[in-house]
Specification:
Elements lengths: L1 H28 L7 E3 L2 H9 L6 E4 L23 H5 L5 E4 L6 H9 L4 E3 L6 H14 L3 H19 L2 H4 L6 E8 L4 E5 L4 H8 L3 E2 L7 E3 L2 H7 L3 E5 H7 L2 H5 L8 H4 L3 E4 L11 H12 L1 H4 L2
Parallel strand pairs: 1-2, 1-3, 3-4, 5-7, 5-9, 9-10
Antiparallel strand pairs: 5-6, 6-8
Amino acid sequence: MTSILGRSRHASRAAVLLIALAPFACGRGDVAAGPRVVCVSKQINEFLYDIHAESVLVARDLTSIYPAAITKLPSVGYHRALSAEGIISMKPTMLLTDGNLGPDAVVEQVKKVGIPVLVLKPGSTLDSAELLMTRLGKEFNREAQADSEVAAWKQGMSAALADTSKWSSAHPPRVLVMHLGQIANDYLALKRGTVADQIIRWAGGVNAIDSVGGMLRLTPELIAKAAPDIIIATDVGFDRVGSAEKFAALPGVSLTPAAHDMRIYRVDETELMYFGPRTPAVLEKFAGWMHPAAAQH
């Protein structure tokens, strides 16, 4: 009798598990329904909108806020602090990422319930970013749109880079990019070798931070020592302070040439964290801030 009862309980648990997994199996098998994608990469999400493939998206990560239309989608949280339950509840046929996600245990849970995880490398150079868009076009049947977007993007970059000769200077302005790290609630500088650093160099400036890598935690002493002629602050950190005048009064910032001359500017984080079709316009904007006289001619 006990054995029969044990088998009954086991069968009951198995039935519950099958019911839980049924939506994923059905979703993948129903080709007509199309893909349901949870994408936790702001670069990939923007590219999907660029090639008009946004209809595949059912959820985003917290940092994917461009274009504005994407904010209408539900968020599954910060891409480095995801929950399996939030992702699974969207009944996706795919979790799409550039590899910058976590915790690892969540990714494994998602895989265990049968949701494929597609990792596409982020475009850390112009060429690789263009290839990423082309790859997304093939993945979601938007090849013609992706090819058209890449062609226009290349044309825009060629035009923007053609102007770099007039932005060159024997004494390039020193530029500090300040980004608010929301987890630790502190300011970080974007180092050399980053996308922002490349755009600064194209625009005829030099990164005020000498070290190479990702980001550097800033202190008032480091800001003052960097002595930037120009400070470019990303949106969250700038908006929290409220204005260029208030930003100029921050500890360390107040001691810089940038604060003295009020050369402090706001930029959307998504404009300088990765390359994309907006990069030519961002380059022109940076050049205008660094060389206002040359930009007017």
